[in-house]
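Subject: Protein entry, chain in single-letter code together with its fold tokens

Category: Structural biology, sequence-to-fold work with a learned token vocabulary.

Notation: Tokens come from a learned vocabulary of local backbone shapes, not from coordinates.

Start of record: The labelled sequence and token lines come straight after this line.
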Amino acid sequence: MPCMKPVPFLLSFFLLFSPAAFSQPVLTQKDFVLSKEGYPLFTKKQYIDVCKKDLGADKNSPEANAICECMVTRLDRRYTLKQIKAYEKHHETDAVIVLMKQDTLLAREFQQCYEAGSQANIFFPPAYARAFRDKMAERYLFEEKDSSQRERIEKYCDCAIRIMQKKKMTLKMLDELVDENALLSNEIRYNCGDILKTTANNTVWNAGMRNDISGPETDTVYVLQLQNSTKVKVKIGPLISAWTLDSGADDLLVSDSLVNKLMEMKLLSPQDFIGEGYYRVANDQPMQVKIYRLPQLQVGKFTLRNVILTANKDVRGYLLGKGFLNKFSRWTLDNRKEVLILEK
């Protein structure tokens, strides 16, 4: 996700030139932003107060202090009285404000001040955090192309931005949001839920999962070790196939042709269709799939019910993912004995 870099325009400059701005105790020259000739234009304190307000930051924020003080130094002795007077012809008391707004070099320097001051915590202004969160939600809604998922996506983005603010994100850490091997992106997915929908329900194990299993407390299932894959015999009705055990994948993944066959044999019905979503294979790359709730399947002496089945037309080998393994409280793959030990 690209970093949004706000250019802080100080929208409340008119306050600097209000009558109240000059009803202050006697100040020295160093307290003012000066013209190039040394003529006082407005106080540095007034500017910094307005700057913090426009940033939407707490008045004691160290990031806001650093940014606004940097901006003040860029303004001090920047403009000549001749430049200011030229703008006064058309803009009167707003001359300095308009001059600053039209100064493209100043805008770049202000941006540099912002980046330098916020590099240790880019989300310190609440307004920026909200804007980033809204952009994130907009992106996911565009990718999902399903307006019914808006509430789920909004909640995910609310949760994600809270974690980011708590972490005090740096610009470098933003790269971790799109790196699915990074601890930060996985922490967000763990706490907020995976934004890529694969199932209608959470398939993480819980004690109620045993209600979906018929059979003994424990069973030992023989497996086939073929090169770098482990094959398990799976039975759906009279159909028996060798599926690849993949603890890095999501649920069960099969081809569209197998789903069609299950439909023809009345082992799956249109009412079992849940919707569409994404499937994560072991390399964590998402694959768009159709999602079904398979009434039952058999592995060893166990019969499992309510198993999530996903399908894609390009699938060749069938996968037994975590949606299957997480039905069990414990599972162990014994490579030496070539068995899969499953416990309710």
The chain has three domains: 29-119, 126-192, 207-343. Residues 209 and 327 are 5 Å apart (CA to CA). The longest helix spans residues 126-144. Residues 29-119 form one domain.
